[in-house]
Amino acid sequence: MTMDAIKAANAKAGFYFFERATLRFFRSRIGQTVYEGPGGTYFVTSEQFVGSGGYAAPRAYTVRRFNPDGDIDTVGPKFNTVTKAVAARIARQMAAGTYQQAA
């Protein structure tokens, strides 16, 4: 599975996760590494929020799961709360089926 295949499946199913306007609104960046295994297909995104006064919060990362129907889910720790390295580790563990969320 590649990011291009994930994007195509999402669009074909009528979803807008990767639409340019959606990405711009959330100031999203899509990681190009796909983590695939018995636990599923995962990738990492980052978002940066900008307040009404123009303050830009630090960029943070989120783990996403690609579903066979083309939809994308947010999984793992809360949305937009971890570093790039932590998100990649979690995505890799989820794909391998070895991820255990901390209590």
Mean pLDDT: 92
Structural domain count = 1
- Helical amount among residues, as a percent range? 25-40%
> H/E series, N to C?
HHEEEEEH
Radius of gyration: 14 Å
Tally of individual helices = 3
Describe the biggest sheet?
5 strands, antiparallel
**First CA to last CA: what distance?**
31 Å
**Spans with pLDDT under 50 lasting ≥5 residues?**
none
Overall strand count? 5
- The shape, in one word, is flat
**What percent strand?**
15-25%
Helix and strand composition category: alpha+beta
Could you provide a short overview of the structure?
The chain has helices spanning 3-12, 20-26, 84-96, and strands spanning 29-30, 35-37, 40-47, 60-66, 72-75. It has 103 residues and is α+β, with helices and mostly antiparallel strands.
Could you give the topology of this structure?
Layout: H1 3-12, H2 20-26, E1 29-30, E2 35-37, E3 40-47, E4 60-66, E5 72-75, H3 84-96
Antiparallel strand pairs: 1-3, 2-3, 3-4, 4-5
Describe this structure in words.
- With 103 residues, the protein is α+β, with helices and mostly antiparallel strands.
- The protein has one domain (3-96).
- It is built from three helices and five strands.
- Strands 1, 2, 3, 4 and 5 form a five-stranded antiparallel β-sheet that branches.
